[in-house]
Structures are given as structure tokens and as C-alpha cells.
Amino acid sequence: MSDSSSSAPASSAPIEWMDASARQKAKYTILLTAFLDILGFSIIIPQLAVYAAQFGAHPWMIGLLASVYSMMGFLFTPVWGSLSDKYGRRPILLISIFGTAMGYIAFALAHSLPLLFLARIIDGITGGNISTAQAYLSDITPPQERSKNYGLFGATFGIAFAIGPLIGSAMTHLPGAWGGNFGLGMFSMTLGLINLALAAKFLPETLSPQIRAANQAKPPSPNPISGYVKTLSIPRLNTIVLIGLLATTAFATIQGTYAVYILKEYTRPLVQQDIARNPQAAIAQAQKLESADQSTAPTLASGEGDAAIASDDVTAPYDKSLGGDYQGPPSSSQTSLPVGLSWRHVEKLLVRPESARVVGNIFGVIGLLSLFIQGGLMRKLPQKVGEVPLVIIGTAIMALGLLSVTLVSHLLPHQVWGQYLASAILTLGNGLSTPVLTSLASQFAPEAERGEILGVFQSVQSLGRILGPNIGNLALGFISAGAPFVTGALIMLVAAVMALQLRAIAPTPERASTASPS
Asked: Which of 187, 269, 290, 494 is 20 to 30 A removed from 408 (C-alpha atoms)?
């Protein structure tokens, strides 16, 4: 085992017991596995806050829902990473993919906030797939090529995030429950089962039998935080981990708030303008949507009254922090509403698919930009610019991107295209810094403990995803709609300042190349 206290990057060649052809096949197989996993994830996540708001959730509750997956990841990811060091990457990936599929079933059947929470908890407990996939990729990649391959890994995410939200947005226009969480969940579950079948058939093991045997022979650690202690005791690695925590916390302030911010600042005002322009057309469209909802509601229920429950949810007033209740257009006294409909009901029926469409389109553009940045620019930039400069530049650009989210909404009120610009800035910063941080972490991880250490690295980022949404939603609920993004920008600036310290202590591509055996 490598000395964890050493200041040099862990020296490891790509696994010698697999030939080059087998390693290439393994790389493309794990990228396909990651693609299918993130595709299902990206279909659901952009819509999660919208459904929670439809159930009448306060922003702090939406923040808790957004972070509960990461809470489970924080607790369980290091465990899965340690198990992957003992028993191999393949079995852990198969278990986590299956657990993800079960979480999607729970999401599909959720008609209340508690069931939405249950779905995210199931997925979070078994969500060791990303860190294990990163360890898998690291097993077959020399240090000097890891930024490039993690860029490909990020590009795979970009493709999935480009396609997934567009699929989710398109599916919201299907009739009834198939256009709601039932349809989204069942489609994502199907992707998960396809992923499981492909991984079971084609995914080879990349951790050598010798390392597995040696790790299995070690006595289990009685201390549940030993992995964190071990990781944070490696001098250069602990700085990287802390930057990752701050950057993830800052970025996660938009998780659970961005969709709600779009709903408050863009979708609701635009829908209300449409209602005011043509009340009768808005009523007709709302009736069509309500009829479609009710026509499929009984097929999802085991007992009676399910349609009434759905109606209660969709007619609950929005929280004050989201703009409060809607009482109709100025000319509402001149327009008669059908029995059973209120103006609040009409607005909410129209807002749900429109919010899903806008958020889905924005996330789709983010995915396409991620594909270009991480699959294109990041193939050469680490060698030309250096890994540490990319972390510094990327975190600084992310701070600017977060701040621009709220700036464009004030400079260009109700102009959705401004959010595409802000998202592009944020995506550029994230694309430059994220794969490099993961590469640096893998370079300082001893080979026999790489799964556990990358699990800790991902776990600490899960902690950021716990803190970020709750910080963001508290700022949204108690300060203003733009406060989460200003807060995130300030946190990201701290990460950028810390990244400056890496100039003296982190390895450059040349040093990483030197550390790798020829």
C-alpha cells in the first residue's frame, strides 16, 4: 500500500492484468453505464422542485427534499467505495444501478411529499454508482490522462443532461398521469433496468484480484469515520477536498431553488399575462389539462378519491415566497368560471407544464454546453494550461455565473433568454474545474484505497449538496428570490481564493506524467 502521508501523487499505471483493447472496451462500457444512469436522473431532477411546489411545499421543505439524496450519499458513499476496494467495482455498480431503478418506481407512485422523500432516500442509499464509476475509470487510466478521461466522463453527463431534461419536458405534455411524475418515474425506471442488464452482461471488473484479496484480508475498521481521517491526513488531498466541498456547496445553492426561481420570476408572471390577455382560452386549456389528469388518476390508485387528492394538491395556494395566491386577472369579474374551477386552479394547471418546459430547455442547453466544454475543450486544456490554473479560473467563472442568474432577471425582467446566458457562464466554470478536481483527487489516492478515498471525496461533495440547497432555500424563503445565487457566488469566491493555494502544492500535468511509470 502507498504511504498515505506522502506528498507525492500516488504512482499507478493502468491495470496491467488487462490488455489495451480490454481497457478501451471497459472505458466505453463505463461511459455508457454512466450515460444511462444520468439520463434517468436528469429526466426527473429538473422537475422535482416543481412537483414539490405543486404539493404546497414551503421553500425550506423543497430544499430538504433536494438534499435528502445527498444526505444518504454522505453516509453511504464511502461505505460503497470501501466495499468496491474489497470486492471489486462491478458488483457495487450493479447493486447501485438496481437501487436507482427502485427509487424511480417510488417516484412514479408518489402522490405526496412523504413519498417523494422516500423515493430520494432509496436512490441516495444505493447511489454509490458515480464514485465507483470514477474509481473504475481511474483504474484503467494513467495519471497524466485522467483530466482528459474525466472530461469525457463529464461530457457523457453533458449528453445525458442535454437529452434528459428535453425528454422530461416533452413527457409533461402527455395526457394525464403519464405527463406527471408517474410517467417520468416509469420511463426512468425502464432506463435503469436496461442499464442493469447491459452492465451485468458487458461490464468487466477492473480492480485486480491481488488488490481485492489484500483488502479483504485487512480487518474491518471499527471507526466509521476512518476513511475521512485517512483522506484528510494526506496534505495535498485535504486542500482539494475542501475546495470541492465549498464549490459544491455554492453550486448546490441553486439545486431546489432554480426551478422555483424560474417559476416565481418567469413562469408565473408570463402565465398570468396570458390569462389576462385571453381568459377564455386559458380556462379552456386548464379544463383540458384537468380532464386529462382525472382520466388517468383512477388507474394509479388502489382506493377511491385519488382524483380528489390530485385536485387538492393542484389547487393549494403557492407559498408567499413564491408570489403568493393568485386571484385572477384584472378583468376577472367579467369572466365567469366553470363550476369547480378557481383562478388559482387555472393558473396552477397552466404553470406546471410551462415550468417543466422552460426548466427542461435550460437544462438541455446546459447539457449541450457541458458536452462541448468537457468533451472538447477539456481534452487539451489540462496539458496546455495546467490543472491548477483551470481550477482557479473555473471557480472564479462559476462565482460570476451564480451572480448573473439574479442580475439578468433584474436587468431583463421576464426575458427567459437571459437565463440561458447566465447558465452558459455557470456551465463554463463548472466544466473547467470539476473534472480537474476529480483528477487531482485520484492522483493523490493510494491505488489500493482509491475506491474508498474517491468515495470520501464524493461524500464530502454530498455534504455540500446537503448544505447548499438548504442555505439556498433559507435565503429564498427569508431574504429574497435572488439571495440564494448571491450567497452561492460568495461561497464560490472563497473556493477560488483557496484554489490559489494549489499553485504551490498541487501537481501539474507534467509532474503527474513524471509520477506515472513509463
From this structure: 494
